[in-house]
């Protein structure tokens, strides 16, 4: 457990450095949200209706933008081979790295959501609902994306393959995340049903993701 804690701290420190990826994701999220009102126009009612979808789409793309560094840095400096050969189960190591990535890159997006929601004409209740759904859904994006990152780490131009693999798997999370946000803001659907499915998707990815990523790493590094 001490080794996993040290790994999480190390990955968070690397991600928070300049060029580590965490800041890039937040800046990309900010850019998407700031530019969208210029594209939609001065219709505040339309902007309010589209606000949850814009925030969710920005968070999805920002998460995808930083996923390629999940294993790539370790592969480039050779530490990934040491991680695979260590006594710590590779599945737990993958889960720890995904947790560190979510803390460094996913959690700042959630924290920024209430502020960025003001740019989309969302009130405090609406931005709180979107932030809650992002809190429940972004772990699914991270643990699902970890599988693609593990598959792409040993391939030339693996970043393109990562996007092709991860985006289809992220669509259910996007659908139920936006549905839960819209239900909390406008109704008439119940908030509980899509939010429960969103939580279930995160739990399923939490179970499947580390095992699939570990298998992909073992196969790719053999």
UniProtKB/TrEMBL annotation:
Protein name: Heme exporter protein B
Subcellular location: Cell inner membrane
Any one GO MF annotation of this record: heme transmembrane transporter activity
UniProt entry keywords in alphabetical sequence: Cell inner membrane, Cell membrane, Cytochrome c-type biogenesis, Membrane, Transmembrane, Transmembrane helix, Transport
Phylogenetic placement of the source organism: Bacteria, Pseudomonadati, Pseudomonadota, Alphaproteobacteria, Hyphomicrobiales
UniProt function note: Required for the export of heme to the periplasm for the biogenesis of c-type cytochromes.
InterPro entries: Cyt_c_biogenesis_CcmB, Cyt_c_CcmB_bac
Family under the similarity heading: Belongs to the CcmB/CycW/HelB family.
Entry's Gene Ontology BP terms: cytochrome c biosynthetic process; cytochrome complex assembly
Parts of the chain that traverse the membrane: 21-40, 46-67, 99-120, 126-153, 160-183, 195-217
Cellular component terms (Gene Ontology): plasma membrane
Membrane protein topology class: Multi-pass membrane protein
